[in-house]
Protein 1
Amino acid sequence: MVKTAVKRIYTFLIFSFLYAPIIVLIVFSFNESKSRAHWTGFTFKWYVEMFKDQQIMTSLYYTVTIALAASIIATILGTIAAIGIHYMKKLPKTIMTNLTYLPVLNPDIVTGISLMLLFILIKFPRGFFSMLLAHITFNLPYVILSVMPKLKQLDNHVYDAALDLGATPGYAFRKVILPQIAPGIFTGFLLAMTMSIDDFVISFFTTGPGVSNLAITIYSMARKGVSPKINAVLSILFAGVILMLLIINNRMSRDNGRKENAV
Amino acid sequence: MKRHLMAYPYALWILIFIIVPLALILFYSVFSIDADGIHFTLENFKRVFEPIYLAVFFRSIKIAAISTIICLVLGYPMAMILAGKNLSKKSLLVVLFVIPMWMNFLARTYAWMTLLEKNGLIATIAEFFGIELPSLLYTENTVILGMVYNFLPFMVLPIYSVLVKIDKAVIEAAEDLGATPITVFRRIIFPLSLPGVSSGIIMVFMPALTTFVISRLLGGAHFTLIGNLIEQQFLTTMDWGFGSALSVVLMLMIMVSMGVAMRYEKENEGGGLW
């Protein structure tokens, strides 16, 4: 009994530690005054005013568009790359796999700075597109590393059988290979989205004047005090992400249920 | 059809956006460019070993190591509790554990600033009880707190994923043979969980060593870790050569610590987060 109590208390303490700052952040997005410590009354005004704030809306726009564009492009490019790597000979395959791990293991600050140097040297204007290219670069490994295990599980005979039965390679790919690796592609896409939305360091070094995502905006505001409007944006973004997770989770468990019924 | 050709666009991408940029850092660290042309120099690396910069390295390693140890001490019991729950509760708790990570990394760190600042929530609450608190923000401990907060899940999840895979029969066998719970932990559970522990250590130590955001926001403008030093060279003092040399040393340090950790990870089966 004592043991269970200790475990419960410990779990409670750790979870409070993890949630306290986030809860405070959300609670103070409803605070009447700009104070971050004194509660002066409930209001929705920050949720209205954030839409009028040019800087916040622009950075929200860049956060979302770059995350979406980068993860979609990385998913397509990464899936193609994963298939290519899967059918390579042993040596090039090992080299490509290790190179794929490189940006994952390399410190973000080094990746960011090295890309910044590249953009400066080739005189590529720093801004939306340089940031997008950087995001695609650090998203690619997550897609490839999610798709590769699914490719390993594939039974190659099914694809050959489809070809024998007269399917064109393209048709066989769409109808045989794609459905089997789809869960890996989807996981990779989600991972890429998450990394992109969360990224600060690489974006910070690869962007240019006038183009900042939410993280960069918070960083530049943090020293002189962040407006409660930022709290409001973050609360909405957080709620949106949780909602997305719930929907995905719901859909996946429903799909699993369907499969079990079919069997 | 030559399906392996599908990897070539990606190979080109790696060449342009990974290999060439890293080569640039290497280049700038050992070549200086002036009006006479390009010269080979080891001056930048010599500077890295000057006392003031060595102090920054030691401080970064010290803080990253302390944060990693705290994460391990706090995280291991948490991973054990998570792994011990019955199945339905387990997945719910793990999801609850991961959810805070979906709040933007910078926002989470910023949230701590608002809690700890001079007129922040914690100071206000303490004042209510008549306690005068010393400055909570801009100290070494605040930076460590921020690191533990941000990286704790990276310690718990790999350990958890190894612990749930331990065959219960092995533990039961030990108990049947008369082992006390402490012996079971010391001789069976802990050794079997080592791959998870080593992944956890890598996943906490690496970002803790290289961050410049946590130290800047929670440590203040004069709190310098390796990350801050590198950032300054490229964005403030514009000394690309020295910044590149620092980056090269940082990369080497990461590689060495990875190599050490990998030794313990020979039979790692899914100890990592992915």
Protein 2
Amino acid sequence: MYDRGKIITGIIIFLILLFIPFLYNFITGKATYVPEPVIGTSEKECVESRMFMRTDHMKLLDEWKETAVRHGVRNYKAKNGKTYTIDITGTCMECHTDKEKFCDRCHNYAGVEPKCWNCHVYKKVADK
Amino acid sequence: MKRRDFLKLAILTLSGISIKPFAHLFTKPVFADISIQRTNKGLPRWAMVVNLSICGKKGGCTDCIDACNRIHNIPRITNPKHEVKWIWNIPFDRVFREQNFDNMNEGLREKSVLVLCNHCENPPCVSVCPTKATWKREDGIVMMDYHRCIGCRYCIAACPYGARSFNWKDPRPYIKEIDKGFPIRTRGVVEKCNFCEERIAKNLLPACVEACKEGGLIFGDVNKEDSEVRKILSTRLSIRRKPHLGTEPKVYYIL
């Protein structure tokens, strides 16, 4: 192999550059960062089980949107037997009052931008 | 072509045509039967009556319009090109063009008439919507799903009453006080009167009807024989906007 030295140094430099972001996060401790949303309520369960809400709240909200707008049904019967009013502002945001600390913290971390708040209102907007 | 081949083809064609009368046995009708919807008596059919002999007596009264604007977070944009309207006033001669004649009562000609979405029985806006963002509910309300609207504005072009508005810009800065009970709209969607569908669901009257202290607006279920609207419609002469178009509006006017 010709120019062995140059090629290998090149590859090493390339690999170092590639892994700089990972190394940076590892050294500064950002790799273990977990967002801490402020729940805003002491309730143990909300609408559905905690795990379900954590992983599938978007599916539930999507279903709520569909049932309320398209079918005009405004009550949701949860698995625990309780009935909830389908209303993102009135039901969800009544307890989880701080959208910035509750919704945004995780969404920013996960890099998702839900468009809910383009139209739906939460307390801070209404009180402004 | 030989004479023999021609005859063969001719016989084949004729036999093909002879099957046509029986073709329907193998296919389903394409169009839904409209009469089914009309005779659906179990469901309500919401309608509104605007009593023009009461409405407008108090000069410049806009109680109903203000109530609607307030609870639906409607932006007040003064530029008529960007205006958003759900319920508003226009002079009689522009609302009922076909009723105009040379020596008509001048007072009536210039009278302000309340207009809103007619919630047509045959809504042209619904048939043109490419995403089904607007559709007719089973109770006759022509609904909007703002989540689905892509802002193509076909419905605005199709509506013969100009009842729809487009959000050309972000409406937020133009709303003085935001009501938490109803979402705001965003730039790029069409909106219109929803017959206060969210209030009907709570057994409340539409905001405009409730706000009218004079009783100039009457709202109810025309399928119910003892409802007030039904009584008025069956006893008094009422007119509708552009009835010749066959849209069958459910907002009636009595003079």
